[in-house]
Amino acid sequence: MDTQLQIEVADASFSYEKEQPVIRNLTFGIRRGEAVGLIGANGVGKSTILKMLTGLLEHEGSVRMFGMEVCREHLSEIRRRTGYVFQDSDNQLFMPTVYDDLAFAPRNYGMSREETNARVDEALERTGITHLKHRQNYKMSGGEKRMACIAVVLAMQPDVILMDEPSIALDPYNRRTLIRTLNQMPETKLIASHDLDMILETCGRVILMGTEGIRADGDAEEILKDRKLLESCRLELPFCLQGSR
Amino acid sequence: MNQMAWAMRELQQMDELAVENSPIHSRHPLAKLLVTVFYIFTVVSFQKYDLTGLIPMILYPMLLFAVSGIPVRLCFQKLRFILPLVCVAGIWNPFLDRTVAGVIGNLAVTGGMISFITLLVKGIFTLMASFLLIATTSMEKICYALHMLHLPDVMVTQALMTYRYVSLLLQEAGTMMNAYMLRAPGQKGVHHRAWGSFAGQLLLRSMDRAQELYQSMQMRGFHGAFYYADVEKFHTADTCYIIFWGMVFLLMRYMNLSEWIGSLFL
């Protein structure tokens, strides 16, 4: 076992319905500090993979996080070290204010008020939304909610961050802010997204999913420049590369 | 704005009121909860014909409205749905109890009329006190106070999560209503043929969202109980708040202030 690997998936499978597996014999590993993009057409199982890694869905085969098998016994420790940014911000922000949402995880992990406040302030500063600290969640725009979701996860100070479509519904300015924030984050990242331009700017490695499993796993620029490969997986070249066809 | 969106807005309005700044807002939630409960018990304990003794109890809500800065009209706007129910509870009193208790001009005032008005006043006072508690204390802090009173954590967490899920349900219902209205111009409300599928879809979508929300909580270490690390400590002012109002309520309960004030002028 490679001890540098923070995420290890070996022959993992998952089905929502019997006889119709969504994930089949999946195998990959992610090292500490890597930023990996998880791309593929709708329905190939990107979100499913993220949920398998955190034990939100029960899988077959082996899924290990931080050297621990993802099973009931280790879920508490794995989730303490893993941050998950959900696709829908409204499902992630359930407390009355941004502060309450950011403090939720530190409190649950038994931190003191001082420690909680320090983590909240640090997370707000890293995402540039200190001015939203006491804002009520329903008064925020989509972009602000998205940044708040990332801050919520940063307040946990996780080792690994999983993101499901982080740039969805963001205007160009907020999207640029998100990219800048992601590039400043040293944590291990696995980002599931259709925004191939964002993936190109933030990830050094890409895992391309097809209907039958992993079609390619390697350097982001190499994979995202391969038009034939992308089109065979119902994707297109990133917009920034389309002029160079 | 459809009715669901309007209901959602009213809920959000209460959340906004609860985070304002005033001497009442800054009182410890346990102190406010205890005083409110004591007030409600005191009001309810008045005899059914003791209207004059009950009236001075208006002092508590009126003073709180003044100090907290919460508009009284807002309270009555919220209560407009509940007051008819209070009326219905006592509507038979004037018909069942026709003993003449007094005369005002040519009008014979029966015991039933007095008991009906007393019931109405009790309903208004207790609802005002409840409104003031919710308007000056966030749901999380109320649940924290319940937790301090050693109510089972399961119950407290259920109450808090039910409150959060109600807003989720209203959001989904509001979205569905908008989609329906845009495709059913000129129609008022949902056609009865669509009730079944509307309700079914609402349930499924709300459950989906609730599931995602719960997963989000699990990912952040939630394991059945909320932790409230940011609530203020119990101060001397909070103790004085409880003692002061406790004494005032007891005084009003056992001494008819209306009669006493009236006797000063006779």
How much of the sequence lies in strands of chain A comes to 25-35%
The counted number of beta strands of chain A is 10
Outline of chain A:
globular
Number of strands of chain B: 2
Task: Describe the model.
The complex is a heterodimer of chains A (245) and B (266). Chain A is of the alpha/beta class and 245 residues long. Chain A has 11 helices and 10 strands. In chain A, strand 4 (60-65) and strand 5 form a beta hairpin. The longest helix of chain A has 15 residues, at 113-127. Chain A is globular, with a radius of gyration of 18 Å. In chain A, 44% of the residues are buried. With 266 residues, chain B is mainly alpha-helical. Chain B has a domain at 20-137 and 231-259. Helix content of chain B is 70%, strand content 3%. A two-stranded antiparallel ribbon of chain B has the order 1-2. In chain B, helix 10 crosses helix 11. The longest helix of chain B has 30 residues, at 153-182. Chain B is globular, with a radius of gyration of 23 Å. The interface between A and B is medium-sized, with 35 and 25 residues.
What is the gist of this entry?
By secondary structure, chain A is of the alpha/beta class. Chain A has helices at 46-53, 75-80, 89-92, 98-108, 113-127, 142-154, 172-184, 196-202, 220-224, 227-232, 239-242, and strands at 5-17, 20-31, 35-40, 60-65, 68-69, 82-85, 160-164, 188-192, 205-210, 213-219.
List keywords for this structure.
heterodimer; A: 245 residues; alpha/beta; four-stranded antiparallel sheet; 38% helix; 27% strand; globular; B: 266 residues; mainly alpha; 13 helices; 3% strand
List the helices and strands and how they pair.
The complex is a heterodimer of chains A (245) and B (266).
Chain A: E1 5-17, E2 20-31, E3 35-40, H1 46-53, E4 60-65, E5 68-69, H2 75-80, E6 82-85, H3 89-92, H4 98-108, H5 113-127, H6 142-154, E7 160-164, H7 172-184, E8 188-192, H8 196-202, E9 205-210, E10 213-219, H9 220-224, H10 227-232, H11 239-242
Parallel strand pairs in A: 3-8, 3-9, 6-7, 7-8
Antiparallel strand pairs in A: 1-2, 1-4, 4-5, 9-10
Helix pairs in contact in A: 4-5, 4-6, 5-6
Chain B: H1 3-18, H2 29-45, H3 51-54, H4 59-68, H5 72-79, H6 83-90, H7 93-96, E1 100-104, E2 107-110, H8 111-136, H9 139-148, H10 153-182, H11 195-219, H12 236-254, H13 257-264
Antiparallel strand pairs in B: 1-2
